Amino acid sequence: MASSSGTGTGTSGSTGPNSAGPPATPGPEHSQPDHPSSAEPDAHRPRPAPDSIPAQPDGETARTGSENHATDHHAGASGPAEVNGSSDSADPAAGALAGKERRSGQGNAPGTPLPMRRDGDRLRFVGAATRRIARGIDLDEIVMGLCRATVPTFSDTILVYLRDPLPVGDERPTGPLVLRLRRTDRLPAERDTENSFLATSAVPQPPPELSPVSAELCEVRPGGALAEVLRGVRPVFADAPAARAALPELLGESCDLEVPDGQRAILAPLRGRRRVIGAALFLRRPERIPFETDDLLVAAQLATHSALGIDKAVLYGREAYIADELQRTMLPETLPRPTGVRLASRYLPAAETARVGGDWYDAIPLPGSRVALVVGDVMGHSMTSAAIMGQLRTTAQTLAGLDLPPQEVLHHLDEQAQRLGTDRMATCLYAVYDPVSHRITIANAGHPPPVLLHLGGRAEVLKVPSGAPIGVGGVDFEAVELDAPAGATLFLYTDGLVESRLRDVWTGIEQLREKLAATAQLTGPDHPPPLEALCDEVLDMLGPGDRDDDIALLAARFDGIAPSDVAYWYLDPEDSAPGRARKLARRALSRWGLEDLTDSVELLVSEVVTNAVRYASKPVTLRLLRTDVLRCEVGDDVPQLPRLRQARATDEGGRGLYLVNRLARRWGATRLSTGKVVWFELNRT
Among 401, 399, 436, 402, which residue's Cα sits nearest to residue 414? Predict the structure, then answer.
């Protein structure tokens, strides 16, 4: 008997082509058929087949995927596939019997597929299929991996049902058990299905997804046939009594999918770590050989690996959702629209699998139409980093509400970081922009310096003292005041934008400056580039290897407020102050052409100034700003904030803020380090 492999031994010592005995056993169906050719020096070297589809043994009745392949393997010209580099003898009888079923010895009719002949073939198929299923990281990838691994290699059609909704972890499902048809795959009708396990040269494109062929939803009746099959966990043939009664319940009464007779359908429950989470139905066409008993073990392995993968994918999806929600709530949902400045921002996580990080940005409106611009970076990319970032951002917002100088804000952030832990390190840059004075005050705590893009297209890296990171402790921070001309754009960013494994931080900063300057040249010297498009251009400078860290970007376009749109006065805290305030406001409105607002402004200014001079010991400030709205600000040296209350009918006062609340578009009060500011806004039209 001829040896079927290079190391196997036969029952007879004869190895010639005319030796007596049964024909040589064909090689494993996962091996690639040989292609003998004198033009190929490596023709006797076995070529590995793909993981998911084992190869079909050669024989006269086994068809191949191309005409050249079929003509090369004529009768008596080549034997079965080589195994481990040793070819079988070219026995003419071997080609005649290669298409026979090994156990029964009966030949297959022309056009019928060949089964798996060895348990090793099934093991190789299960190994390849489970590897394909394991590649998926989310639910859809795992289900698709199961379908693509089994069609057409194991079955012609597969239907995958999953629990709706899928339970997460140890949570107990509530309500009835409902299965939803998640995905179906099948062979097209015109597909050549003569071989159940196609040769590599005949591997077709992946089968397309099916249109729905059965009921999308199936409610499993307690105590019903389907519930009993799912409770049994093990795969069963569809011709079994329990499965025969369960299939109509699973597929629905109006199902147009015909289940073939005999052992051509397997119903396999999908059981996860805790409970059954679905079912898979494997079908073969009537012209294909039926499943064997060993195929139930194959279906069980496929179902087990798929169910465990689905369980883990659901847990991963929940964790990713929590991480996304945590990061989203830590960052501002929308940016404010303060007077005299336009804002845009971007945030990019370090990777899809690490969506949380310590980078943050913020824009906080301040009294006097000013705005605080903040960007920071907490060390690390974990949930802890995101939590620390959230606490520091909240602290910065609270300190900004006190209208502290930028260096004082960083000092208090440093103290807060030390209270959170000894290893809580972060960098931060805090800037305050005043649109009236066209100035910006910046303090830095170990953060990359900002870049200012001027209107003419010149970009410069601002010279700001770097300082020590937040969390070091015992370090003084220094603030600098710089010009912020109208039309200029300030870019605050984290080091993930300019630093990576391929470049150092200063090289990245220089590339950022050049990118901004080149982009500004496209719009000309008199027109700054659109802010949103400019942010996108900045992110385009990132290369494939530049995403080592998450990125936060905050851009501020300085429009400013023209001096002609500002009116400012000091009022002594005396009884005549409200009358003088009304007169000054009337003159300013007449100069601006806003006489229609005179009555409302005089009434509200009189009420607010009256409340201020009643308790103030220093001069009261009155400022009017004309932008898209008319804004009035009254400041005094009393830190107590006024509160809106409902005055009684017998009260002589207490109605001032009530009038402000009814007539003004918006109003508010902000505590300062030197007192407070009460402001209100009116629409200009």
Answer: 399
Residue 360 tokens read as 């943050």
50 three-state secondary structure: coil
Q: What pLDDT shows up at residue 646?
A: 66
Distances in Å between the alpha carbon of 175 and those of 164, 219, 220, 489? 10, 10, 11, 57
Q: What letter would DSSP give residue 368?
A: G
Beta bridge pairs of residue 278: 162, 270
Prediction pTM value: 0.64
Tell me the residue type at 229. V
CB atoms within 10 A of CB 596: 11
pLDDT digits (tens, 9 = 90+) for 107-118: 544 444 445 556
Q: What is the DSSP letter of 500?
A: B
Lookup: tokens for 140: 């859809």
Q: What is the pLDDT of residue 402?
A: 82
Query: Taking the CB of residue 448, how many other CB atoms lie within 10 A of it?
Result: 26
Contacts 24+ apart (CB under 8 A), 528-536: 528/453, 528/455, 528/487, 528/489, 528/557, 531/342, 531/343, 531/344, 531/489, 531/555, 531/557, 532/344, 534/344, 534/453, 534/489, 535/344, 535/345, 535/346
Residue 175: φ, ψ to 5°:
85, 180
Region of 233 please: left (phi>0), alpha (psi -120 to 50) or beta: left
pLDDT at 503: 81
Helix pair angle (505-521, 531-539), 10° resolution: 140
Residue tagged 């009256």 (tokens): 610
Of all residues in the chain, the percent with pLDDT exceeding 70 is: 74
Tens digits of per-residue pLDDT, 263-294? Answer: 888 998 998 887 888 899 998 888 888 888 88
Structure tokens at 297: 């073990």
Tokens of 444: 């830095």
Cis amide prior to 367 (ω within 30 degrees): no
Output the six-digit token pair for 273.
């770590």
Q: pLDDT: is 533 or 11 the higher one?
A: 533
Cα maximum dimension of the chain: 129
Q: Which two tokens stand for residue 316?
A: 């991963």
| Strand, helix or coil for residue 430 | strand
The rounded mean pLDDT for the chain is 77
**What pLDDT score does 50 carry?**
43
pLDDT at 63: 38
Nearest-angstrom CA–CA distance, 263 and 294:
12
Sheet holding 157-163, edge to edge: 217-219, 178-186, 157-163, 276-283, 265-271, 236-237
According to the model, what pLDDT value does residue 577 have? 94
Q: Are 467 and 446 in contact (CB under 8 A)?
A: yes
Q: Map 590-657 to HEC letters.
A: HHHCCHHHHHHHHHHHHHHHHHHHHHCCCCEEEEEEECCEEEEEEEECCCCCCCCCCCCCCCCCCCHH
pLDDT of residue 559: 92
Nearest to 199 by CA among 264, 90, 113, 103: 113
Percentage of the residues of the chain whose pLDDT score is greater than 90: 33
Q: What is the DSSP letter of 45?
A: S
pLDDT (0 to 100) of residue 349: 81
- Determine the Cα–Cα distance for residues 645 and 643; give it in Å rounded to an integer: 6
Q: HEC states along 305-337?
A: HHHHHHHHHHHHHHHHHHHHHHHHHHCCCCCCC
- Residue 352 one-letter amino acid: E
